[in-house]
Design brief:
Strand content: under 5%
Shape: rod-shaped
Structural class: mainly alpha
Radius of gyration: 29 Å
Number of strands: 0
């Protein structure tokens, strides 16, 4: 139990003494990760738009062919 309390006190001291530096370091690293995540989401969006556009064209073509097949001449 004494080791746990000593560890908690040491952690508190470290955060008190170097807390600003640790926060700045973590912010700078997380900024890069957030930027890469945003780029990935944009890429997924562009890919999904392309897939949906092709699917829409295919459905439209299929429906037109179906209409032509059942329409009396």
């Amino acid at each position: 139990m004494a080791r746990f309390v000593l560890g908690a006190l040491a952690g508190a001291f470290v955060m008190w003494y170097w807390g600003d530096g640790v926060r700045e370091y973590l912010d700078s690293k997380s900024r890069d990760v957030r930027g890469r995540a945003a780029d990935t989401l944009q890429s997924v969006e562009e890919t999904a738009e392309g897939v949906l556009d092709r699917a829409k064209e295919q459905v439209s073509t299929t429906l037109q062919a179906g209409q032509a097949a059942i329409r009396p001449s």
